[in-house]
Write a sequence for this structure.
C-alpha cells in the first residue's frame, strides 16, 4: 500500500498500463518488483538521480511533485516492502503480484 507516492504509481502505470491509469488490477511477476527495488536503492544512494530514475507524476490526489522528505520516505518504504515480498515469494508463501490504483 502506498499513499500519495506518485513516483511509485507512475512506475506501475508506465510498465503495466501503457501510461494510461485505468484503475484496474494488473498482474506482474517478481522481476518487476526487483527492478523497482533496484531503482529505489539507486535513488537512495544518489538522490540527485531521483528525477531521472523515478520521476514524480501529477494528477488528481497524487500528492507533491517535490523531491522532498516524503518522496524519500516512500522510496525507503518501497525498498523495505519489496524485500519482504521477495522473501515471501522465494519461500513460496506468495505466488504472484498485482497492482491496482484506487481513489
Amino acid at each position: 500500500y502506498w499513499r500519495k507516492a506518485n513516483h511509485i504509481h507512475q512506475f506501475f502505470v508506465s510498465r503495466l498500463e501503457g501510461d494510461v491509469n485505468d484503475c484496474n488490477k494488473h498482474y506482474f511477476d517478481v522481476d518487476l518488483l526487483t527492478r523497482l527495488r533496484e531503482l529505489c536503492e539507486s535513488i537512495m544512494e544518489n538522490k540527485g538521480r531521483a528525477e531521472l530514475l523515478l520521476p514524480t507524476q501529477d494528477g488528481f490526489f497524487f500528492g507533491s511533485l517535490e523531491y522532498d522528505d516524503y518522496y524519500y520516505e516512500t522510496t525507503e518504504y518501497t525498498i523495505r516492502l519489496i524485500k519482504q515480498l521477495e522473501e515471501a515469494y522465494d519461500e513460496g508463501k506468495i505466488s504472484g503480484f498485482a497492482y491496482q490504483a484506487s481513489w
